[in-house]
## 1
Amino acid sequence: MSMTDEQLDNKLTRLKATLIRKYWSPLLETPWNTVEVLKYHRTVSKSVRNIFDVKSLISDSVGTLGPFIFLNDFWSKHDWSGPYRNTEKGLLIIYQLLTGKTFAEMKPCIPQSTFQALHKEVFIKNQAKLEKWIDEKITTMFSSPAIRVCSALLNNPEEFKCVTLYADGHDARINYSSQYETEGFKHSSFYSYKLKESGLCTQVMMDINGMFLLVSSSEPCAINNDGSMFVAWKPQRAIARTDVLQLDGGYTLFVIKLLKQQDVADEFNTSNFVFPLRKITNIDFKLGETEYINRFGAKRSHIETGFADVGSVFKTFSCNKKLKVHKDIYNLKLKLSLFFMNVRRAEREFLPLHITSTHRAWLNDDFDFQTSDESIKTISIRVEEQHAQVSEMTSIQESFISQIFALDSDEDESDQIDDFFYDLEQDNKQQQREQRRQEEEQRRQEEENEEEEEEQQEEESEYNDVNLQRLNRLIQIRKSPKKGR
């Protein structure tokens, strides 16, 4: 039974609402987290230089919700290196992906050595945590089999009405590094015939709505072709029985190989894949076949457009950019960029998401996570004494600076310090005299109060003695025998 476009549209609206309720609402309804302080710096946390320009570029490029989700759901779980606000350090990671700047080119915002340490902490030390977080988000938040089918039935041309997914390899230029030699990779292993230089190949799957759902590892081009990577990638993880995956002609034989695997053959068959027509040797394509191939290419260009959009927004992955980076770091950065692209598409056109002031808070000046320091809860007496001493000296310094600005004098600074401490000493003496006077007055008052209490107690004691004597006399009278009895 076929459904009308209106029915499909209503069904798609309900499916989107379910997706939002299940995966988006828990993220968007969570207030900003508190970061537990684990690192201590020589200075207080300060703002990144030119942070206004950084925030503006991020907001214009990827929107509001992507940075909010990344900062609040992942970034807030750690206390990151560098004496800067934690939110701004996270924004710098996004900023570098967007601009493609090197560590040295980040110096207008943050010292090169500081950003390099932060970069290492994010993409090397916490690589597994970040990759797990990204994989979970891109496979659940942006698509479902039912949403893909509804979208395909609504939007696809008749010849490819059932297509719900695309997959293709993406080649990127890199600089060959000596680090690869230690891992056993020769320079020739990276040669890409498409790029005519060293490159990395990555398999990417995208759905009918332009959402990236699955990303393979990034491997040297020369020793890894699209087909062999596709089989090793296990794409069946992201494909449902109702999906149809559109591929180019280079995958045909490898899909047949994939379908011979028992776990794949039990659930999928050739109906779940669609390829262009292959040319028969010495026989030209017929007119209808040529038109079909052209329409097939136009349809499959959707994923190529997706790659172009990523390179346009994230200059790190521009087609002309040659990266000097390890393949694992490149892969993690690509995944993170695809996550932001998905959220941008969801925010701007695909899902009816409500953006609040909480989600925009990271754009505010001087915004940062609230922090908690567990060590403060168990502070010792000696530490309290140190804090009191620091507080006292800080108050003195503030008073000194305030007095200098108030005087606006050309007097030598050392003389000003001497004068300040002389005045401070006099003030302290006056305070001490006043304190002694108050203590003496309080002592006299206490003595007078004690004397009054003693007199009152004596009066009460005398009064009690008199009453006791009277009572004893009455008892004796009652006990004595009456006369005449």
## 2
Amino acid sequence: MQQYLDLLNEKQLEAVTTPSQHVRIIAGAGSGKTRVLTTRIAYLIEEWGIDPTSILAITFTNKAANEMKTRIENMLDGSSLGAHISTIHSFCVRFLRSEIRKENYPSNFTILDADDQKSIIKESYKILNLESKDYPIPKCLDFIANHKCAGFTPEDAMSKASNFYGENMAKIYKYYDDRCHQLFGLDFDDLLLWSNRILKKYPYVREKWQNMFHYILVDEFQDIDNVQYELINLLSNENTFLYVVGDPDQTIYTWRGADINIIMGFTKKYTDCKTIVLEENYRSTKTILNGANSLIKFNKNRVEKDLFTNNAVGEKIVHFTAADDDREGDYVVRRIKDIIGGGEYSYKDIAVLYRSSYLSRTIEKKLMDSRIPYVIFGGIRFYERAEVKDMLSYLRMITARDDLSCKRVINVPKRGIGSKTLDDLFELARDSHTSIFNSIDVFEGSTKTKNTLSNFKKMVETWIDKSVNMTLEQIFQMVFEESGYRDMLELSDDPKDEERLDNVKELMNDVVNFANSNPETKLEDYLSQVALYTDMQTSNNTDYVSLMTIHAAKGLEFDNVFVIGMSENIFPSARTLEEGVRGLEEERRLAYVAFTRAREHLYLSDNNGYSYSSAMTKQTSRFIKEIDEEYIQKIGMNLVAERTYKPEATGFTVSKTSKYKVGDIMIHDAFGEGVLIKLSDDGLYGDIAFPYPHQVKRVALSFPKLHKKEK
């Protein structure tokens, strides 16, 4: 153990060895929090003699949980295997498998993923005679989640409804809630809410689990919400050692419920709490770190800290302003070529980050034009691909035979079972208070359809019987072959089916790996794990530029980072600016997270083109101006006038004279004809008076769809 303690700096060592019962670790970006957390667990086991089974460590991604397990096992030669290290949702699954029977639910309940939820909402449209365009699925799911998390039942929602729209939303909520119960299904919100409800309702259950875990450690504590915090409190008693790790400056998920006040107010709830601040950064150069520090200091709601590093000073942060989107993309690609041409870095050492997904369009096009390999992270994830979900639904037919899985695969491959038959089956099942699968036996239809349905049911029942004495790999192969899914892909002339086949084969690898790691596991355990696990990404090329939103980049680091789209109303976004100081501080934290992903070089870019999303010309983000001048180099264009673009240069040459003057008649493709009534001091913008309803608008004089009317 001592050899691992010797690797820690003074503050890290204090954080690992503190005897305090309640501890808050404020871990700055790149300060080695994972090392501290894993060494703390190893220290509890090795030096304090703590039983590993009494330790519960909560993380927020499966990837982080697996990394922690591996590190601890390496420290202790595998003796940490008894500690429960998982995401909070994985813990809830374990808890509910043990305790949910008390609520008259089976322990093999189905975990409903996003597609399952959408399917139920689509069902509600038919039952309630509603149009999806009037009640979009995302709005319905938000309505349901918000009411559930606030403790409001469908009946409460109906009583609160003040209009026809609200009443119909309450009806959709009611259908969704009833359908979940029919399916014995729980969505991700339910996993937490049902756990909390059981812990509150049954004191002896709460006491049992409090006595099970004497040491609770929570990672990424800045991103937990009130429901998650309630669970942690319910698992704790006056004897629990509670150890939380996070950084208020990296709270970037308030839009999905995270509450920065939880980590900020932790010391008020636990007055004996010891706070330890980790300020030494091991990731970035001094210049990048100091630039990020100068930005985040504009936030008021934070724990004061000043990160430092013993790394090299490094080069200045580069800020480039282009004329338009295309020129910004050209600049980024040119820089990437320069980086690769230097011979020191590979494509995998480069990331392009952006505030919103739509910003990737231009850079994708430029990368493709230059034949630079890239991967977008956060696109269609592995487990969300149609062929993968088909196979998982087939496997769920063995364990649960739920309606959602049955509807998905009953006609895949094509068996001649049309939507009318499915609708009739659904109605029959609903009237009989049973499942679609069970209603097949009493279905009345043509002889051909009845035989087809009967054969499908017999096939599944045969799988159920055979699977009892089969390994997970054997079950998967049986289903893949006998369902006809393999032939459907292998005999297809569609070139895309070759890739789909590879995805199914990769899923089988996943099944085999899971079985090898968990020899005593059951099929339902694998399906539970898959429903929770969403981190897997695949790529045929191991060397590529990574493109992703800043939210997706949390926890990652690269030698070279580009942050594009650094324009006002884009970053910070117009929506968050409407939220006032709270929204602005969240956006500034997001910028701070983006900047601190960079180890050696940080490039920030924006452009003066026209934004259709904000209906105005772009201006450089305030976050650029908040970076101390000492740490940033600004290049590119500063004025708009007569420009000549030079691809080999770092910017533009600008003539001193504008070709426009007050009084000119201007024609805008969208707003029509108007009069230029004012020029900005720098010549960048013009105030143009257009006819009603457009009135006076400030427009970039470089906007391509604006020109002067010729006399």
## 3
Amino acid sequence: MTAAQARPAALVVINPSGNRNKVLISETPFQIGRQSDNHLTLRDNRISRAHARVIYDNGYFIEDLESRHGTFINGERVQRQLLRSSDRVEFGFADSYKLLFLFDDDEIGRLLQQIQTGQSLVTGGTNLESSAPWSRSRERCRILSPLTKFWRPLWMPPSPSPTPLAAT
């Protein structure tokens, strides 16, 4: 099976400022590094030009490309490691980029299933049908709000924080 036939996977890229972007792993090998010809370019001088790559071999694997500071999965330095949904990928420095690997269909599928079954994301067990009508509506909003992070185009900036009104 090739990467095109595999489950769709993505990396959530968290930059040093905390901003997040989602990048689909559209082909393999998926190159990660500082150099501009990589599939994912990370602008940090401490990251190697060709730091790591994601390959598909009956599962998604990350391979370190002999980088100076290493590739870490969930805090453990690796040379080659099978990636599982929600694995955290780091590049040797706590204040650098972080990646979160996920199967693109996992999160959306889980949220949609919870909407269909009436389960709460927060409590994990609230039955919407047995709740008061106003409570059901509020609970559905709580379930749907995480979906918006997937539907907002990556080029669209996050909504600005409301500014407090000046006292007169």
## 4
Amino acid sequence: MDKKPTYLELEQQVKELKKAVLERKTGEKALKNAKQEKETILDSLVEHVIHQDTEMRVLWANRAACESVNLPRDQLLGCFCYEIWPRRTDPCPNCPVMKAMKTGRPEVMEKYTPDGRAWFIRGYPVQGATGKIVGAIELALDITKGKQAEKALRNTHNKLERRVKERTAELVEANKELKRQIQERKRTEETLQESEENYRNLFQTITDAIILFDAQTRQFIDANAAAVRLYGYNLKEFLKLTHQNITSEPQSSDTTIRQTLEGKLARIPVRYHKKKDGTIFPVEISTGTFTLKNRKVLCGVIRDITERKRSEEELLEREQILKATLAASPVGIGFIRNRIIDQANKAMNRIWGYEDGFLLGKSTQVLYPDIEEYERVGREFYSEIKEKGIGSMETRWVTQDGREIHCYLQGSPLDPSDLSKGVIVAAMDITERKQVEKALKQRGLDLEMKTISLKEANTALKVLLKQREEDKIELEEKVVLNVRELILPYLEKLKMKKMGETQTHYINIIESNLNDIVSPFVHELSSKLIKLSPTELQVTNLIKQGNTTKEIAKIMNLAKSTIDFHRNNIRRKFGIKNQKTNIRTYLSSFSL
């Protein structure tokens, strides 16, 4: 049988157990404070901090990471990271966290998410007590707009508190349970030391400046490498300073520190700080508080926003220039969203005839003379903008005083892929131009009618002139032929008679005068008719009248053979000799 312990031995064991319990409580308190300090620091960061195991399950995530998906921390624990943030069924390609766990060294990458934001992601391997990689830490920073998360810090981890309370309650159990808890405490301390080292690494690798200072004395307690670089000190110099040494707004800083300690303030959008060399620069600050060794400590995460302020000032200047340009523009310009008037410059209001701002928030339907024109513009104008990126058309508007005006519209969308975001519309009053066009069009119609009338008159005149010319030619030919046929033959006969010198002279004068009279007409007479002699002309005329050779010989008192001779000459001169052409029919085509 085992020897029973004496009373003194039992009393000694009880004292040792009480001492162990006291040490455990002291250790648990220190553990709790250290855990709270580290979690408070990490929850103060706007950078996403996620602790994952080797299978990429979430073991812990800071507040910024939780808020990015609107889920509490306890719902994230145990989930795969790629299911939560990128919403995938498998790990992301080239994931820096997976690479870090494989290579055993930090990995980084820049990645663009479907919403267009750019992220700077780093993965750090986590090693266990044996040196084996047991997980990784992921740091994700939104580098698109350069803003940190701005919500209040979470003070404690509820699940961890619950476990600590449960373990504290178990300390009152029997000695056997107490010994088991002591062993568990040792393992917890080892885990805490490992976690503390990881948190220290995170503290130093965060790109934003992080400073810790005593709430009462304002003396700096700690600062990361980014803070030391930002203010231009080394760490030893920096820890000798107080908060007053880095702010250029002491009174405002004191006020915001008091508000932070009262829990009324977690973010300062703009504060001006100063560097070691005296340079003043703007910063954005996220704040938090926690207790460290029975003293209140403030944690500030500080970001230099010099470039952002410069960009904001440049943007403000551009906006002012744009407003001045719109105000001075003689062209009406408005911003229309879902066919509701959102903005309009002075020129546009002058076109409408309304006071500035009167139509803001109203439908553009009030501008149109009827619903058909309103719907036509909505159908054609916006369809062209959607297809081509820019649209233009003419329409009619009604001004405040009831006048109907003609307008030329040209529009361009704010976002070609989504017209509901709004359209910039430029408008010009073209009423006078339309009136001039209408007058010109009417004038053109009048001129066209006059032109048609003139063309018709000109055509009729040409016909009359042509007929007159033909009649003139025909008359001239008849005059020439009649003179040669009816007068000259008889003059020839008279010349064959015996006459006195005076009579012969008169006959020559008559013949010369007749030739002078008909000479202007001879150049226009048919060349074939001009070749005929007077006797041949007389024979030709009798043939046309239907007389036979015998009848012609009797009329002209000539022999029948003489008439045949003249007939042959006529056929030869007309180019129909030795042809079967009827000479009477042929001669009928000439005016004699």
